[in-house]
Design goal:
about 210 residues, 3-stranded antiparallel sheet, single chain, mainly alpha
Length: about 210
Amino acid sequence: MSDSFYKLGGIYKITHIGSGRMYLGSTVLFYKRWGHHRMELRQGVHLNKRLQNFWNKYGEEAFKFDIVETIENPTKEILEQREQYWIDFYQSSNRNIGFNLRKIAQNNLGFKMSAETKQKMRLAKLGKKQSPEHIANAAASHRGLKRTAEQAKRCARTWTDGQRQQRSEQQKQIFKRDGISEATRKKCRDAALRQWQAKKQIQQAR
């Protein structure tokens, strides 16, 4: 991928290679948005059911991500204007041509998911293991990337015993509030452990 993929935002399209059908979207950072799309599609919880159905039927390898237009310092208004232009240009809101559900572009900057959607995404993650191939690909995609000074500072943060205890109590309150059973709590703990192990494997693979 070009530097624009990692450093810039703008308008992108996700295309089903076999049919040419596409989804047009906008973002402030291409690589983060593509990663988010793939995460939701892999878990089967993507809000665009038309795109999700094609993904389920044909598989991830049947899709590609392309940058349509890069925009430096994009604002919500500019992204919506340019996204609208390209939706009209490609006619991607026509269900026979594209996957866009809305004819009018509405950028999701500042959009908050409902508690129900968040819960579905949490449950979708439980019990899922990453294959060695997926871990190796993830490591390869990150190899050579350099963290900014701000990112390095965040990653270097260490937790005091008091902060860990506070975080633990916060999680307990969340589980109690949402009525999550002990069995589900165990699954969450196991899932967190697997994620930690996967991150460790990625670091070792670099």
